[in-house]
Here is the input.
Amino acid sequence: MVVLLSAAAELPFYFLAGAFLAGGLLLVLPFAGSPTNALVLALLFVVAFNSAYHPVFGFFSGLSGYPSGLFRYALGLRSAWFVSALSLVVLMVVKGLGADSRFRSNMLAGLFSIAVLSVCFLGSGAAIDARITYAVNSFLPLVLTVFLLGLLFSIPKLGDKDVDVVSAVCLLGVLAGALHFVLLPVTYDFFRPDLASFMRARPGEWIPAGGYDPSWGTRILGYVTNRFVGSFPDPIVAGYFFACLGFAFLVMRRFVFAATFGILLFLSLSKGAWLLLFQALVLYLVGRRSVPAMFWGTVGFVVIQLLLATLLDASNRMHFLGLVGGIKSVFHGGAKALVLGYGIGDGGNLGRGYLEDGALGAGWLGSGSESGVGVLVHQLGGLGVLALSSLLIVSLRTLLTVGRTADRRLRDRVVAVVALVCSWLANMPLQENCINASILSSVLLAALLLRSLVTKNGNDITSRPGG
Here is the structure.
């Protein structure tokens, strides 16, 4: 239905299709049987939306001339549904855990974070659509994701058969996306030769063939080549998805899946995603011996990334400038900016088109753009950083408490989840995408797969006394 409506390239149809799809799926979630089932459905929907973005919202709309604002509407549809679904899952978890003491700590930290987000949203001077975009695509998913990570081992697990189904769905999806990527030049030449000719005739340093986007190109040893995106909207989103799933399958010893996602990760040429996988593997190996050493290793990776950003004249220099710009902006903006920032939606990559309405005007990097930490500091100020840091600390402490009271196999999975989260955090200072719904969904899906732990006789280890 969405594909057919997309072919018409009429934006009202997108809203109708989105409302129909979102409403139908949200009605299904409460009857999923458990928070785990609902979370799996929500994450698979977001991943499917990301991986089908280009053929649905790119290819079919490209045949009709690319309506203006299509990317923003598509992004809003995905993010709004994701936030609604995660909210329902959180309510299911709250109902299931009841008066659990660990739940109370997470709940207080979560409520504190939501309260700060509300104040920063209402007090923002940015345009209302920029505020909604950042609230729905970044900050609300971030809070809900961190909250659920802390309680991941307190909700029902996935069984082996469930993991096999989820793994197969993800693998078939990306392989279909690979076929789409290979056929892009042929399909454009066949369906819209005029559009393909126009793309190739544009002035520029490098014009790709057919339906390949110029932004997918990268230079290696003097040669320009396309980065593999499958059917994802861009190589960064694709790369992080491949990295998160590749790490999960590697830890779970599903080597065929791990190798497949590893190859796709390499072809995406996404340096941040490469780094995410490398860091997660190192931190996992270190954490199996010493959890404190894993956290010190995370700090070390952050320091190394920042040093390289200052020493090398590469793309990471721009991300470093965004980090510094976001931090400097609150110190130069007075007491209100230091405590509450400039408000949700002021600046950042997603709000770049509205910068003229923001406190810093045209100061793109000065508003923290290109840096997840820079955007957090600039838009939420010191109080927002404190709230999110508190929620993160509580969630990690809850995870590690499970690991300390469990046997070796369960502790191993807990350490793997924490290592993935720490690697994601290490990338956040120089990657704004790390606080966006597309990346958060991949991190949470990988953590949920790592949560699956079944003994040979099919019993859940966490159900044992002291587990």
About this structure: The beta strands are 217-220, 223-226. The two ends are 46 Å apart (CA to CA).
